[in-house]
Amino acid sequence: MKNSIQQAKDILKKANLYCTASRLAILETLLKAKKPLSTKQITNKLGKKHPDKTTIYRTLESLCKSDVLHKAYTHQRSWHFEPAHNCGKTKCHPHFKCINCQNLFCLYKVSFPDIKGLDKGFITHRQQLRLEGLCPECSNKINNS
How is the chain split into domains, by residue range? Predict the structure, then answer.
């Protein structure tokens, strides 16, 4: 299995994008995380040597525009980003948000049907599903208290 830095380089190359330090660092961080991260979480994981916030925002937007990343989830007006290679162009895998610990989980093995029967004039660009509730760890804490 490839390490995350090589995987990031391969993804950028496939998208015909330069492998800049910012792109590599952000993409590698998201690949290692294995779940969507907010801009703040990305910045924290990059550590003290992270690029400035403007560079991070611009890099995230350019990677989304190139279909390397996508915006997977928004919470309290904050987008969460993840690599787009786990999803199709118009349909993303479901996500689960724990209302107790606030963790976000990717549900790669869960599928849901395409929406059909929209009234005339609606054009769907992307279909996403977010479930909310208690994750196994939080539900165990509640059940064992």
Answer: 1-86, 87-145
Per-residue pLDDT reduced to its tens digit, 86-111? 776 667 788 888 999 888 888 878 87
pLDDT tier at 117, thresholds 50, 70, 90 = confident
The sign of the CA dihedral 114, 117, 120, 122 is negative
Pick the CATH number of 1-86 from 3.40.50.880, 1.10.10.10, 3.40.50.720, 3.60.15.10: 1.10.10.10
